[in-house]
Amino acid sequence: MKHRIGAAALALTLALPWPALADVIQATMHKMPQCGCCEGHAAYLRENGFAVDVKESFELSQISAEAGIPPELEGCHTIFIDGYVVGGHVPAGVIKRMLEERPAIAGITLAGMPLGSPGMDGEKTEPFVIYAVTKDGAKPTVYATE
């Protein structure tokens, strides 16, 4: 019986495409109900190895502030991933870098809704500046430029 189960498990493993074997990164996105570009960013993240649960809220500014994102750096949605906050349309590679490096920050944010950012229409016209934020009121610092 053990051999049949082992053989079945091996066959199933070999039949699955390699991406299915990779670890999926769990994420919870909070967004305003009327915002459509947030769904675009969620779809982009799903294409890049994230499992995104979308929750609608009219309290986005409060959620972002409590997570450490100052109002001037707030994006149009707030995502919680593995103990970190991600504000706005941050590229997947920058999020994954943060998760690998595990810096001592609350998270990262890309302010506003920059054209050409993941999930946004239009062409990118300038580099995206992604800031590291903390909950202790320290001034945000540049985490990455894409």
Keywords:
single chain, 146 residues, alpha/beta, 7-stranded mixed β-sheet, 5 helices, 32% helix, globular
Average pLDDT for all residues:
87
Low-confidence stretches: 1-21
As a percent range, the share of helical residues equals 25-40%
Quickly give the structural class.
alpha/beta
What's the β-strand tally? 7
The share of residues in extended strands comes to: 15-25%
Which of globular, elongated, flat, extended, rod-shaped describes the shape? globular
Largest sheet entry: 7 strands, mixed
How large, in whole angstroms, is the Cα Rg?
Answer: 18 Å
Terminal CA distance reads 54 Å
Number of helices: 5
The ordered string of helix (H) and strand (E) elements is: HHEHEHEEHEEE
Q: Please state how the strands of the largest beta sheet are arranged side by side.
A: 2-1-3-4-5-6-7
Describe, in plain words, how this protein is organized in 3D.
It is a single chain. It contains five helices and seven strands; from the N terminus they run H-H-E-H-E-H-E-E-H-E-E-E. It is α/β, with parallel strands linked by helices and 146 residues long. The N and C termini lie far apart (54 Å).
